[in-house]
Write a structure and sequence with these properties.
- By secondary structure, the chain is an alpha+beta fold.
- The protein is about 30% helix and about 25% strand.
- The protein folds into 3 domains: about 35 residues; about 90 residues, no CATH class; about 35 residues, no CATH class.
- Strands 1-2-5-6 form a 4-stranded mixed beta sheet, sandwiched between helices. The chain has a two-stranded antiparallel ribbon with strand order 3-4.
- A hairpin with a 6-residue loop joins strand 5 and strand 6.
- The radius of gyration is 26 Å and the shape is extended.
Length: about 160
């Protein structure tokens, strides 16, 4: 073989090795990086009530050690604090209580946003959630601002109330 033929054969072999390495890396990325359902399958599980019970320290600690699934049960009362980070305005009545109407699960994972599931297994289905901002200006009385959040809304269109 001439040196030119050897050069081209080596280039072809190098290209094949590079292609195989890239395919291997892609395959490892697909296998190694699970979606939310896979993450939830290996996550620690706890009930929201555990965070307010006698063992609250242990329950809270499990939230900080990696992915966790929190089960909210019908009837749970969850205090919600609304904060506004602004130099222009402040929120005065910031304490609310969320009352759970039916069981749901919340996946907390540092690699992505919180995810919801109604069965504790499927965290990947896309819900038609929405956020609305507007103004309520009645014919008489004080005008006000409207913030509405739809999380798995009952209405099929996800349309805000009028």
């Amino acid at each position: 073989m001439t040196s030119i033929q050897k050069y081209y054969m080596r280039s072809i072999n190098d290209s094949r090795a590079l292609l195989l390495a890239l395919l291997g890396a892609v395959l490892l990325a697909i296998i190694g990086c699970g979606g939310p359902n896979q993450v939830a399958g290996g996550a620690q599980r706890l009930a929201y009530a555990d965070l307010t019970g006698k063992e609250r320290q242990a329950a809270f600690s499990s939230l900080t050690k990696g992915p966790a699934v929190v089960h909210f049960k019908k009837g749970d009362r969850v205090p919600v604090r609304v904060t506004l980070d602004s130099s222009l305005a402040q929120v005065q009545a910031s304490e609310l209580v969320l009352v759970v109407e039916r069981d749901f699960y919340l996946l907390l994972d540092g690699d992505g946003p919180p995810r919801l599931s109604e069965d504790g297994v499927d965290f990947e289905s896309k819900a038609k959630n929405y956020f609305l901002f507007g103004f309520n200006v009645p014919k008489e009385g004080e005008a006000g601002m409207v913030l509405q959040i739809g999380i798995r809304p009952e209405r099929s269109q996800g349309a805000p109330d009028q």
